[in-house]
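Hi R.,

Here's the chain you asked about this morning:
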Amino acid sequence: MNESISRIKVQFTVEDVGNAKCELIRFLAPRTIDALLRIMPLNGITALSQDMIYFKAPINIGVEKPKTQVDPGTVAYWPMGSAVCIFLNATQPYSPINVIGKINDNLPIFQKINSGTRIKLEKI
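And here is the predicted structure, written out as tokens:
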């Protein structure tokens, strides 16, 4: 059996752009990850910020093991915006975030995204 309960493989599918694999790492924010897994597949519409792509997630989770610095490829839940975020650069987010995982491959596809692009997050 190749499946792990502590590291969950998921995939972002970006309309007309491509796919990127990600690993959710449960110990980083277990309540946040459990809430997201319960509503997957999660479909959204992207918005852009200076160093991140984000889309709304219909969950209401507060700050859990908050981080204020991230590396490129970090995937997080942003409690203040109720959104899943993919960080493109090392940066300091606007407000504390719950880091949930890391993009494993194909991070450059997120550079091609415009606001209003459809995105899907699903377990693989």
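One quick note: The beta strands are 7-14, 18-25, 42-45, 47-48, 52-56, 74-78, 83-87, 98-103, 118-123.

Cheers,
M.
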